[in-house]
Specification:
Layout: E1 23-29, H1 33-44, E2 51-57, H2 65-71, E3 76-81, H3 87-95, E4 102-105, E5 110-111, H4 116-126, E6 132-138, E7 150-152, E8 168-171, H5 196-206, E9 211-221, H6 229-248, H7 253-270, H8 275-289
Parallel strand pairs: 1-2, 1-4, 2-3, 6-9
Antiparallel strand pairs: 4-8, 5-9, 6-8, 7-9
Length: about 290
């Protein structure tokens, strides 16, 4: 495992004697060679270089070894071969290996602008009380955010807005008390193929961990293709996970009804071009209301 290089513009706290913030990128991967290569390439351009990629390799033995070899001299990679498993089980296994200060839940098909880790290091250094920071997910070119700086998330209802796993950043101490529910998430053995990250956020909030939003911390992800079979399947799965989550955490009936009716209201507003997408979301949420793992 090669050590990451340390360029001059790596961020360090205002107190020069303090050690720089270190990151662990928890990254299960399976059957995504090109996206994985793009992710690792984006990591070579990071201004802040104090990080290790914990790569949970669920591929056939040797399938991505050439990619690992191509980047291991430029960034620190801990290669952890594992049997195919649900994403929650894979993340829990990788979390046991982590030694760094902050944990990043990296999808193998996301990637990062060069300044992301420097801004993240600054955010955690300037707010020692922050246990979790929620960044911003970009599918297109960045648009100016109306928010500036960090803002606390104090209501559990706030966990459902723009908080996908790829924009969640945790101090290690969170995972000294919590792990992912392995009955939830893509690839698990139950019908609940989503919602594991929101479940973790809700449990962290209930346990008293402090959660902040910072829209200056950006993560890029591919555009979804509206109406494609893959997108429609995902949105239905997400609907099942959403409603199961509301039941698990005993949200009130009014909030469940809002979530059930939301896709139908959006369908009316958006028109025929979004009909299939919103209908599948509605079907998924109805299924989730009746689903147990």
């Amino acid at each position: 495992m090669a050590d990451a290089t340390m360029p001059r513009d790596t961020f360090t706290p205002a107190n020069a004697s303090a050690a720089p913030v270190t990151f662990a990128l928890v990254t299960p991967t399976r059957s995504r060679r090109d996206p994985l290569r793009r992710l690792l390439e984006s990591l070579t351009r990071q201004e802040h270089r104090h990080f290790t990629v914990y790569l949970g390799d669920q591929n056939v033995a040797g399938e991505i070894q050439d990619i690992i070899d191509a980047y291991s001299a430029q960034i620190s990679i801990h290669h952890a071969p594992m049997l195919p498993a649900g994403i929650s089980k894979a993340r829990n296994a990788l979390l046991k290996l982590v030694k760094e200060d902050v944990i990043i839940l990296t999808d193998d098909d996301c990637h990062y602008p060069p300044e992301t880790f420097a801004q993240l290091a600054r955010a955690f250094s300037e707010n020692p009380g922050a246990d979790i920071i929620i960044g911003r997910w970009l599918e297109k070119k960045p648009t100016p955010s109306s928010e500036r700086g960090q803002h606390p998330v104090t209501s559990r209802y706030g966990m459902f807005s723009n908080a996908s796993s790829i924009v969640l950043f945790f101090r290690k101490r969170v995972f000294e008390h919590l792990i992912f529910d392995e009955s939830m998430g893509i690839g698990c053995t139950s019908h609940i193929q989503s919602g594991e990250e929101t479940d973790l956020l809700l449990r962290a909030h209930a346990a008293g961990f402090s959660i902040f939003r910072d829209d200056s911390i950006l993560v890029r992800h591919d555009n979804s293709i509206p109406g494609s079979p893959n997108t429609l399947r995902k949105v239905e799965d997400y609907g099942v996970g959403r409603m199961y989550l509301l039941k698990k955490h005993r949200f009130p009936l009014w909030f469940m009804l809002v979530n059930i009716t939301f896709p139908l209201l959006r369908l009316i507003m958006e028109g025929p071009s979004h009909y299939r997408y919103r209908w599948r979301m509605f079907i998924g949420r109805c299924k989730g209301l009746l689903t147990t793992p």
